[in-house]
Every structure is written in structure tokens, then in C-alpha cells.
Amino acid sequence: RGIRVDGSNATIIGTKPGEFIADRNNVPRTWCDHGAWPVFVLNFYIQQTGDYEILFKELPYWKDIFAHRCRVKDEFWDPTQGFKQLDDNNDVYNGTILEHILIQQLTAFYNVGDNNNLLLEGGDWNDTLDMAREKGESVCFHNFYSHNLAVLSSILQFIHGKGYETVYLLSETLLLLDRMPNQSKIDYNSPEAKQSRLEKYFQKTQHNVLGTKTQVNINDLIADLDAKSQHIVSHIQKNEWINTTDGFSFFNGHYDNDGLRIHGDSDVGVQMDLTSQVFPIMCNVANGEQIKDIYRSIKQYLKDSDSPGLRLCTDFKQLNLNIGRKTGFTYGHKEHGSKWSQQNIMLAYGLYKRGFVQEGFEIFQELYKLSTDSNKSLIFPGIPSYFDPKNRGAYAY
């Protein structure tokens, strides 16, 4: 219920049921990963329970003054209209959960920067990448959305096998389903074409929605999602695979606010980000040979020679306000190069998932050593948020 019709969502859930807040202190922010996690959680729930019919449950959308992913204010809205999305008859519009998460994936697909990757906005999972809101891009989470589109396609194939031939979607979403029959196709290799199509959708849904629904053939919808997923994979493979001058290879993860690539060879040495390698592995973007190269590079650039665990990134060495406050942290602390437990765990999971069992087990063993060495970690055996340069556990709760 906290999802807006523009694909963004509230960042805070209020104290009352159905109450949502744009962000703390009335400062609205949108992270590019807003739409990534609901699909992950929903798919996990469906796989565990078999309850695919939850997709057809209808809920309202959240509405406040902010539109266009918090870049525009809706001058026609005021609190007396309520905090649910209304249609042209001023009735609350309800859409299925499937529709909610489709809108989040579709708007993300079109929400790209000049390099044709997902706009970073206020940050991605790493919310210290927070100073590149105009031209910053997250290749890292572009991987995640390609996988989500493939996951939704798979779920829809399953539903089709259960006898469902069609689904009903908010009519305006057909603008974003450009590979559907009788729709106007755009060139996915053109960032300008994507941005223009998204802007048309934003304009049509900025205040109210029509309230009408269009019957969509499931097989046509699957084909559209597959085309978008495959485009992202192809784009990242073609444009974001880096070969360094010292013979290592891995994926670029981000662009800064000048639209410049952050990772790879630089004036201060090779720059690398762990999260930006984890997601291509987990999300089936990296192929088998690339995973081998990535693992070799990770051990070269993100591994201490004298202690276990992998660092979150290489040392930026200088403050870079074109990307975010991350670069202002002392190296080895928080998002600037600590041994972040979550990404170590996700890497191990990704490696296991892709069949690299020995490599996954090595990561698991090292995190286990860090977590159980209480003399150094100074915590009871367990997994903290991260380990600092002395391998002390931080934020255990």
C-alpha cells in the first residue's frame, strides 16, 4: 500500500495502519532500489507457500504531494483528498499486487541516465551514494531489475499453466508495455527514448489516474518482460564489463554525477565495489567464465592478506562529492571499505546458486571465522552489520 503509481514508495511506515511518510523531516527522497525488493520478497513468499493467488489481491496506491519519483510536486493535490490514489471520478483506485510490482519494474526500466543504466537517484542499497542525483547511475541494481523482470515472467508462465489467459492492468501502464501488440515500440538502446516514454506516463498519472483497466494477454505480457530483461543483460554485458591494465576483469557498478564511470582503472589505482559483483552473479547476468574472473579480482582488490573477510570496496583515497558521503568515511568503516557481512553472505549465496560451491564455502568459512573470534570482534559469536579495520563487530543488533 506504500507504493506510488509512479513506481516509488514511502520510506517510512507510520504508527497507524496504512500510514506512510515520504521520509524523515519532510525531506522526500527516492532510492533507485525502491522497486527491487518487493518482487524479491513476494517471490520468496509464493515459493514458500504456493499462494500465487495473492498476486490478484487488490489494494490502493499511496498518494501524497510528490510525483515523478519526488522530482515534481502535484500542485492539484492537498491532504483533504486523502493519501490514496484517486481516479478521475475522485474514487480510490485499487489495483492488484501484480499491477503494483509490475509498475515498479516498468518505471525502473525506463528510468535511465545518459549511459542507459538505472538512475541512481538518492542511492541504491548503499544509501551513502547520495550525491549523484542528476547523472548518477546504478549498474549494480540494473542487474537486480533484469532478474526481477525474468522472475515475474516465470511467475506469469506458471499462472498461465494454471489456466489464466489474461490479467487486468491500469490502462496507463500500456504506455510502458511497448512490446505488446498495437503499442508504439521504442529503441531500448536510446536513453532519450526511454526517458521520453517514462515522462509521458508520469504526466498521465501525476494527479489522478483514469481508473480504467485494460485486459492484457499473459503471453504478450511475458514477451514484453522477457524483451526488457534480455535487453538489460545484453547492455550490461556489452558496456559494463571492465578489463584493468593489470590483467583483472569485473563489472562496473556506478556512474558519478558527471556521468563518469567510477570503477576500474583510475588516477588512484583500480577501484572496485563488492556489491556490484554480487548482483551480476546472483541475478544471472555474469556468465561462468566471468564469475571466475570476478572471484579472482575480488581476492586481489578486496581481500586483506592477513585476515579473513572481504571489504565492501577499494579505498577512494579522496573525498568525492560527485558520488556521495561514502567517500568521507575513514577507509575500513561503514560503507567505505568495511567487511560488510550482508554482502559477504550474499556473495556466498550467489556463488552457491551458480554452482561455484568451493568458492562459496570459502566466503562462508571466512565470515564464520570473523564472527566467532570474540577476542577480536568483541561481540558474542554472531553476525554484526560489519567488521571494522581491527575486525571488531559493529552494529550487532
Share of helix, binned = 25-40%
> What overall form do the CA principal axes indicate?
globular
Low-confidence stretches: none
State the helix count.
10
Fraction of residues in β-strands: 5-15%
Strand-pairing-aware structural class: alpha+beta
End-to-end CA span = 28 Å
The profile of the biggest β sheet is: 3 strands, antiparallel
H-E order: EEHEEEEHEHEHEHEEEHHEHHHEE
Radius of gyration over all CA atoms, rounded: 22 Å
Average pLDDT, all residues: 96
How do the strands line up in the largest sheet? 13-14-15
Number of strands: 15
Give a structural overview.
This protein is α+β, with helices and mostly antiparallel strands. It has helices at residues 36-49, 97-110, 139-161, 191-205, 218-239, 275-282, 288-301, 341-353, 357-372, 374-377; strands at 12-13, 20-21, 58-60, 66-67, 72-73, 94-96, 137-138, 166-170, 213-217, 241-243, 249-251, 254-255, 339-340, 386-387, 393-394. It has a 3-stranded antiparallel β-sheet with strand order 13-14-15. A two-stranded antiparallel ribbon has the order 1-2. The protein has a two-stranded antiparallel ribbon with strand order 3-6. The protein is globular, with a radius of gyration of 22 Å. The relative contact order is 0.10. The mean pLDDT is 96.
Structure summary:
The chain has a three-stranded antiparallel beta sheet with strand order 13-14-15. It has a two-stranded antiparallel ribbon with strand order 1-2. Strands 3-6 form a two-stranded antiparallel ribbon.
